[in-house]
Amino acid sequence: xxxxGRLLTFLAIGCxxxxxxxxxxxxxxxxxxxxxxxxxxxxxxxxxxxxxxxCESPAPFSSVDACVAASxxxxxxxxxxxxxxxxxxxxxxxxxxAAECLAIHETSCSTSYIxxxxxxxxxxxxxxxxxxxxxxxxxxxxxxxxDRLLCFDGCSALFGYEDVVGAGQCVQGRPDGC
Length: 178
Hints:
The chain is mainly alpha-helical. The protein is 44% helix and 10% strand.
């Protein structure tokens, strides 16, 4: 796994004392958590590309860097929005779960992508209930585990799904039984 040097530096800051510790174990919101989230998203993108290059035959790209360059722009564009939500407390970031996410990318190629998503979806979680305001689906709480993938809660908007101008509202977009 490739751990970005910035993440390692960030994790190493303040190891000698609590006063300079940028992120305590129990901190899940705020600027330090948002910065950790942003670095994790970059590392996760690379980990996913490394896995694809290793596990898919033929390799889908000429290199890991080519894979990263071709990554989903919408996903990248959402990162600052989610980070801002973490600062405000609308979304929580869990560093331990994020580390587990990076680690699962290194497992056997037989590990399913669904299993990877289940682990990685635990890295951040929306805090808003159905009916509460939101700026994206990432702020809406919902089920955990496999149901989080299959049963989707979203953020409705005045001008189209996830194109929130101002605030939308968390809606239950899940089928019965979820």
